Amino acid sequence: MIMLAITKVKTTDEGEYRVVIENCHGKDEKTFMLYVSDSSGMDFRSMLKKKKYAKWGNDDEGPDWGDLKHNEKEEEPVLKKVKEKPDEWVVPLKDKTIKELEDKKVVFQCTFSKADQKAKWCFKGDEIFKGKQYKIEVLEDEEKELTIHQLTISKPMHKNMGKYTCTINDIQTGSYLDVEATPCYFTRQLKSFREIEHRTCTINCQVDIEEADVTWYYEEIEIIKGYPDWFDHIKMVDDGRERSLVITDVPREAAGKFECKTNSDETEMKLRVVPVNEFLKPLEDQTCQEKEQVMFECQMGDDEADAEWRLPVMLSQKMTGSRSRN
After folding, report:
1. Partner of 299 at 20 to 30 A CA spacing, among 192, 211, 244, 323?
2. Which helix (H) or strand (E) holds 47?
């Protein structure tokens, strides 16, 4: 028996079909029609179909299709919606305590919920950047994602003590660095002296620890940018254990008390600034009678300056000099 089976018949399958058989004895062929009705009910075409298939069996299940399967379209995979992670610090910053000079570095670490995010590091509210003392990195976590943000401070000193923060997408985490200071003392004190205005003068002293920090004061107020008014003339220099305050083009206003302080010691001096020495009132010619006393006077800009009188050798033993201050 030869059989043609069509599964899930559609109206487009309706039409004339032809079957051809051939062997060594010859060739034969037959044609037949397939009628397909709609879902409204049976018509004469469906009745013909029922009569034709009746010989296949009296059951309602129709012919045995064997292992034939309809080539159905595979279902498209449904993408699972991934829930977006919120912006947050999974691991916040933690407070640190170190010993000055003993601890060569301190490391701050924090982990953000999202990878490849730009972080802003600040110290006491001011942004800090990569440099000689600061090293800023982004490291991989266990899942190989760049979520760990790290700040390394080399040679932390007492001046590095304070609050550090890390901010991403306006989400901030912070911690405090406490530095236990190593006592530092002066091995050479400041000394008072006088200087002529517009020259360059250097006020210096020496400490016993090369890495120690010092703070300079003028008239008992810390010298910072903007104070005193002539701050632009000042340069602070650290050279080994030497600590210097260099003042260029010294103004008259720089006269006063200067102090230098460590975490455990202090020293002070007084600077006197005098004007450039010049004669405000020059010598004048004098006329006198023989054996009379004659006096020559002049006035200098620097009332502390030394004066040198020059006159003929024969008169030097008869001359006396004096100083008066106006």
Report:
1. 192
2. helix 44-53
Check residue 116 and report its DSSP letter: S
- Asked if residues 243 and 260 have their Cβ atoms less than 8 Å apart, the reply is yes
236, β-bridge pairs: 245
Amino acid at 38: D
- Please give the structure tokens belonging to residue 257: 């008390």
Q: What is the pLDDT of residues 106-149, one digit of tens each?
A: 999 999 999 999 999 999 999 999 999 999 999 999 999 999 99
277 in Cβ contact with 229 (< 8 Å): no
Give the pLDDT band of residue 59 (cuts 50, 70, 90): low
User: Is residue 230 within 8 Å of 219, Cβ to Cβ?
Assistant: no
Rounded CA-CA distance 318/271 in Å is 39
Three-state DSSP class for residue 144: coil
Q: CA 262, CA 159: separation in Å to the nearest integer?
A: 11
Structure tokens at 224: 């910072």
